[in-house]
Design brief:
By secondary structure, this protein is of the alpha/beta class. It has ten helices and nine strands. The relative contact order is 0.19. The site of 5'-O-[(R)-(carboxyoxy)(hydroxy)phosphoryl]adenosine has 21 residues, from helix 5 and helix 6.
């Protein structure tokens, strides 16, 4: 079964053709990173306009890269929740229109489900591709956004070997969410832990801002951390019980330590601090913060494993799953291929495939709605 997956929930416009939920036939991702790097964060209105500009060319490219006509597409899947309202509207309205026009069943997929199912997608070359054809395609000059994941596109690592086994725990770590999900089987999600304030990706982004590192913060912190001493500064772990998370205290702890380090009062605004920090201090703060964030995630997943001794696999999902230190710290967990850690259409196609296998019926294209904040359990 070939599914066209469409993803526009935040600042990536993405489309992919996925075969049987596992094989990438084509995968086009256009990121708006270079636009938002100027502002230091995503501006929802600008993101929506940018999706509007590129969504159809991105879908066309996914189909042409796949060498697929519309006749060969069995279903369309699109992210309808959660995410930025305007961004979700562009993707869903496009998918609705295409489903009606080409008479295809339409599946509405929750974004976090898609991130989890990135772990089922193989990074191996699809057998339907010509020999020598790269497994992943990024958009090109047709879009003004920076092309993301390109450098990972040809990584030869084989993520296709064994698959996660149920019951499993999914550690979802993205820009908007930090959750531990218990999955008893395909398409069965129970939230067993969640953040009470900031998401871990958000915390990376905010700490990067304090340190004067460019948006998005996760990759910038990771890069600066490579040259830093992770034991230079100590930050306390949140005292939150059970499997829930809290990251706003860590962000404040970094802020206060930076202020102390550069001898300014706590009233000094955070945007003034970067000029007072040396490159070495920035790298040491980045490394020490990253270590603490990773330690907190590992601590919670270990606690979850104690609480759920029947669990047979751990999968990590969402943008922060690209983090190399997190990958090192959880060597037995499943991680998506690095180019599938961030937002992409392949994971949407994969999630829809497993929804279909679990008996989920297509949605009505004339009335499909968006839900910017809905939980994965609903
Ligand atoms: O899943 P995602 O692409 O979008 C959402 O659904 O939110 O996640 C984006 C988040 C951002 O906060 C970004 O800073 C973070 O993932 N991120 C990373 C890394 N790459 C992206 N965080 C830590 N280390 C990375 N290498
Ligand atoms: Zn995401």
């Amino acid at each position: 079964m070939k599914i066209l997956g469409i993803e526009t929930s935040c600042d990536e416009t993405a489309a992919a053709v996925v075969l049987d939920g596992r094989e990438i036939v084509s995968n086009v991702v256009v990121s708006q990173i270079d636009i938002f790097a100027e502002y230091g964060g995503v501006i929802p209105e600008v993101a929506a306009r940018s999706h509007l500009e590129v969504v159809l060319p991105v879908i066309n490219k996914a189909l042409s890269d796949a060498g697929c006509s519309w006749d060969e597409i069995d279903a369309i899947a699109v992210t309808h929740a959660p995410g930025l309202l305007g961004s979700l509207l562009i993707g869903t309205l496009t998918a609705r229109t295409l489903a009606i026009l080409h008479n295809k069943p339409l599946y509405a997929v929750h974004h976090l489900k898609s991130h989890v199912y990135a772990n089922w997608v193989s990074s191996e070359k699809s057998s339907t591709l010509e020999p020598g054809h790269p497994p992943v395609f990024t958009g090109d000059a047709l879009c003004r956004g920076q092309l993301d994941h390109g450098e990972h596109a040809l990584e030869s690592e084989d993520f296709s070997g064994n698959l996660p086994t149920f019951p499993l725990l999914a550690l979802v770590v993205s820009g908007g969410h930090t959750q531990i999900l218990y999955m008893s089987g395909h398409n069965q999600f129970e939230i067993v832990g969640t953040t009470v304030d900031d998401a871990v990706g958000e915390c990376f982004d905010k700490v990067a801002k304090i340190l004067g590192l460019p948006y998005p913060g996760g990759p910038s912190i990771a890069k600066a951390a490579e040259k830093g001493d992770a034991n230079k500064y100590r930050f306390p772990h949140p005292k939150i019980k059970g499997l829930d998370f809290s990251f706003s205290g860590l962000k404040t702890a970094v802020l206060r330590t930076v202020q102390k380090e550069v001898n300014v009062p706590i009233s000094c605004p955070s945007f003034q601090l970067k000029e007072l920090l040396s490159e070495k201090q920035v790298c040491d703060f980045a490394a020490s913060f990253q270590k603490t964030a990773v330690d907190i995630l590992v601590e919670k997943i270990n606690l979850a494993l104690q609480k759920y001794p029947d669990v047979r696999s751990v999968v990590v999902a969402g943008g922060v799953s690209a983090n190399k230190e997190l990958r090192k710290a959880l060597p037995e967990a499943f991680f998506p291929a690095p180019f599938l850690s961030g937002d992409n259409g392949a994971m949407v196609g994969a999630a829809a495939y497993y929804e279909i296998k679990s008996g989920v019926k297509p949605t009505e294209p004339y009335s499909l709605n968006i839900y910017p904040r809905i939980s994965i359990e609903s």
